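Weekly sync notes, structure subgroup
Attendees: PM, AL, DS (notes)

Item 1: joint prediction request from the bench team. They want all two components modeled as one assembly rather than separately. Inputs as received:
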Amino acid sequence: MSTFVSDTLNVMNRELKPVWREPMSVVFAMIQPLVFLGLFAPLLPRMADGSALQWFVPGIVAMTALMGASFTGANLMEEMQSGSHERQLVSPLGRPALLIGRALKEVVPMLMQVAIIVAVVTPFSFDLHLGGVLVAALVLSLFSIGVGALSFALALASKGQDWMFWTIQQTLLFPALLTAGVLLPVDGAPRWLEIVSALNPMTYVVDAVRALFAGTYPMDVVAQGVAGAAVVAALGLWVGVRAMRRSS
Amino acid sequence: MTRGLTRHFTSRKQTVEAVQGLDLEIGQGELVAFLGPNGAGKSTTLRMLTTLIPPTSGTASVAGHDVVTGQRDVRRAIGFVGQGNGAGHRQLGRDELISQGRAHGLTRADAHRRADELVADLDLEAVADRKVSSLSGGQRRRLDIAMGLVHLPRVLFLDEPSTGLDPQNRINLQELIQRLHTETGSTVVLTTHYLEEADALAGRVIVVDHGRVIADDSAARLKSGLGDLVRLGFDSAASVDRAAARLSRVPESRVDVTSESVDLRVKDGSAMVGEVLADLAADGVPPTRVEVARPTLDDVFLDLTGRSLRETQQTTDPTATTRTESEVAA
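Output from the run, pasted for the record:
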């Protein structure tokens, strides 16, 4: 096993230990999406072509993935302050492994959260299409890795300035959610908003997840979703590894 | 590597910045303390030697590897205990030891065994399976040191290991470092701004100020070079003057006069004091008070810089520009 792979697994396993030990933390981390689900879903209009939940839940799932992964840099910031990040920088672990291992770890809490949401909504008017949900989980995994890597890059760039991390994270979070059509459809929006939405890679991820959660597999939509997630992943890992190499 | 090596480094830095033209060699197995006030460049030096920051110019090598071109080899060879806590606060101590062992290439079984050894050796049994955030300062520090020792490093760097600890824990830590140094034969390089610590611990003290080495010797020699302080009190200014005149004939000594006392700084002053008193009495100026003080490293620092180490409070630690040059002959 190459050093890179073993280093990455080492970093990932270390990051996962608190998750296994305190699985409830995964639930606490998704309070916001659950609140949206509980308070927003009842307001949705009845739809001609089925339950509103069917449309809304995939958006909440994508929102959970985005929120969880975008907050994750805070853990790294804590380690930068405490000194354990410094200790790892002096260890033989490769810089890319320190970033990629962390980003890969984001998949695990995300999958747990998706499972919780699906379990919560299935007793209501939500039709579970397990095959589609599993494929959607793959797309979301790629997306989470990318968002997580971006969050770590932001944490590294904000070294010693928590406010900078939180300001940028919060400033980007809701525009990303809204223009991706998570809470309301972007169809029929003004032209400028449509353009912003079309430029947001998350839009394609959400569209693909919606189709897959409905048990349909339109190849073009799914491919665009994978491409959107892959763009986020590639960008995140590139920026993240660069930031980690510069970290001291 | 298991060659019977001697490690030296020579570094040399040339600008007027955090660390300037540092040029030194440390041999395998030494226990060395960098002593200096905050901002003297101690930590910057350590950060360069541990590959955290590259030198602006100059070179340094540790355990035979260049800190820039051989980063990974340096990282394999050294243990590092930084100013903060090496163990993640959300982790369990034992997990961190195992993960650190794995990072250094130990097999899973070896990493577990090594973690168990260190937990026992550093008296961490009661807390190793607790979350690091629940540990006391002294316990965390022991855990940090355990992490630095996982791979039996040839060189162990400790950056202000005792800062923030209470006096009892500080002494425990000093004993621990000394014991580990004796047992492992590793080179130990630490920074401190506590004189007592450098004095109690290190075989060799490198006094750093404004990014330069201003003294480099054993604590004992640094102090004996300065001599003991014999302070003689008198009841009148006339006696002070007369005694000072008399004492200025003592060879290889320094005399300082205050309004009611004369300070005589001389090697082996404690052995000489009887003779001095008899001489002054014979001269008609018997002192009314006598104090003899062994020199402290603070006196050494004061002597070298004109400032007391305790009073020196600089908070800036400019790490931005550093020039180093060093070389290691293995």
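Discussion: Confidence is low (pLDDT under 50) at residues 1-16, 313-330 of chain B.
Action: AL to compare against the crosslinking data before next sync.
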